[in-house]
Amino acid sequence: MKKIKSIVWDVETQNDFIMPEGTISVPGAYEMIENFGKAIYHFQKKGILTLGSVDAHTGPELIPGTKDQYFPLHCIKGTKGQQKIASTQADILYVSDNKYSDDALDLVVNEVMDGRRVYIEKQGLNLLSNPNTIDLIEKLGVEEVYLMGVATNICVKEAYDAFKDMQKKVYLIHSAIKGLDIPGNTEKEGLEYMLKSGAEMYRF
User: In total, how many domains does the chain have?
Assistant: First the structure.
């Protein structure tokens, strides 16, 4: 089976995080809407596919260390806030957080090979909270990942850690990531952590 060496991984470019009216609107992310789309198009021209992750919550999300330990209700499955922004929307196949059989994952892989975007749904911060993530990435043969999305120091960093644990080379797309400062965890700290532990910045 053909392997896909490189992918873009789009981290949660959803209305509740990007739009000003979103329940956890990341400061400055709305002004980057065009950048998110341009990043996908830039890699598309190079023959590199975009995959990604979306929050698909049914209740509050536990964030240790925040004021009340929970972020506000956000990205509730089926709501407008959970939908992707227009610049990163496409004909997307979503992989739920139910464990897929090997045959079912092979069908997902075939969709990717045909050029379709596939995004995993997740309940937790880390994309490995979806039990299908590792198997999907390994079946595709991915070796390097270009990360974009929000928030730099939260879910982008969690995605970085997951791919690093899978021994993938990770690049951060400079003009297409944005952070959200919370107590004890700032955008600057998240960025420094990733760059010091193996990530490289990619500019286009």
Answer: 1
Pairing state between β 6-11 and 49-55: parallel
For residue 106, is it within any domain? Answer: yes
**201, part of any domain:** no
CA distance 133 to 110: 15
The kind and range of the H/E element at 162 are: helix 157-165
Q: What per-residue confidence (pLDDT) applies to 73? A: 81
DSSP bridge pairs for 61? 71
Amino acid at 25: S
* Complete edge-to-edge strand list for the sheet that includes strand 117-122: 92-95, 117-122, 49-55, 6-11, 144-150, 169-178, 200-202
The total of other beta-carbon atoms located within 10 Å of residue 12's CB is 27
Expressed as residue numbers, the domain containing 18 is: 6-143
Q: Residue 124's pLDDT is what? A: 83
DSSP run (H or E) holding 146: strand 144-150
What is the model's pLDDT at position 72? 77
Whether pLDDT at 62 is above 90: no
CATH number at residue 127: 3.40.50.850
Residue 128 within a domain: yes
| Euclidean distance between CA atoms 80 and 163, whole angstroms | 29
Decide if 149 contacts 12 (C-beta within 8 A).
yes
How much is the pTM?
A: 0.94
Sign of the alpha-carbon torsion through 61, 33, 170, 53: positive
Whether 160 contacts 201, CB under 8 Å: no
